Amino acid sequence: MKRSALIDLARRLPKAELHLHIEGSLEPEMLFALAKRNAVDIPFKSVEDVRAAYRFSNLQDFLDIYYQGMNVLRTEEDFFDLTIAYLNRARADNVRHAEIFFDPQGHTARGIPFDVTISGVLTALKLSVPQFGVTSKLIMCFLRHLSEAEALATLKEAEPWLGDIAGVGLDSTEVGHPPEKFASVFAAAKERGLKLCAHAGEEGPPDYVRNSLDLLKIDRLDHGNRSLEDDALVARLRDTEMTLTVCPLSNLKLCVVKDMRAHPLKRMLDLGLRATVNSDDPAYFGGYMNANFASVIEALDLDADDIRALARNSFLGSFLPEGQKRAHLAAIEKTPVQSFAP
Ligand code: ADE
Ligand code: ZN
After folding, report:
1. Pocket perturbation via mutation, ligand 1, pick of 101, 202, 203 by most ligand atoms within 8 A of CB
2. Owning domain of residue 108
3. CA of 140: how far to CAs of 113, 280, 309, in Å?
4. CA 21 to ligand 1: nearest atom
5. Which of 30, 66, 72, 201 supports an S-S bond with 226, CB 3.0-4.6 Å?
């Protein structure tokens, strides 16, 4: 099949997005609009200026700009508008289910109350099915450069909202902040019935992945790229059907891979790992779900079976109930390999 037909297949397939930081969907245009609305100074003169600043040589380079960008998010309405804009883009890419991360500590640290952030996001997510035909879940991340005591305080603040929070995640600076630092807060989250995710193996070594499994008891692994350096770990991830939420354009922009042709996604599939495609922080990394698919289809010579497996994996790895997973899997099987549009 031609590349263009494969990219078209990826576009038409129903998909779930399992690794998306809502703050990372803040497009430069919205950054300017919110800076104006909230009278916040930003160090950029134009949208082009902003895009030019989005050059990163590692994760920390990006995080510095990402936390700076958050500064324009002040009110419930801002978080609502941000989330609605993402849902629009998700729908356009035929994303039928989205499990969305948010970083409450990135906002409480600036004096924006937890309730302001979560109310704005949740009010938008209540519209995700009726207005966009997209189901959604919300995952609260702890910032790993902060202390575990601060993560525990955040979990406490979230207590009244736990009915609307599906799980917790662990993000921000990986190297130097190993998973074991957060073992108690993850145990406390598990006790409260929350699902557990953690970024690991993005820049950190395979041991960070192993300790996320053993000490944090994660249900899902975010990134996981560096797991491939350890054959025993790969076998374990395969045998336990652990889902990896892989983010190709993010990996390229943050120099986790030098070139998209060196991206490990195809190898992951060939090794039997449950890999998925996701956009991470699409406003910063150059594309949403379908752009991520197109980039790996082009660079890695994926075939129609690979693409269908990636779509299937996204629902299998989701926190949806089994019945909903089955319905999405059936829709994937019914999607014709060729488009019959004229
Ligand atoms: N926060 C937002 N995006 C992230 C990423 N790719 N890795 C770690 N923390 C993040
Ligand atoms: Zn991420």
Report:
1. 202
2. 3-319
3. 14, 15, 28
4. 2
5. 201
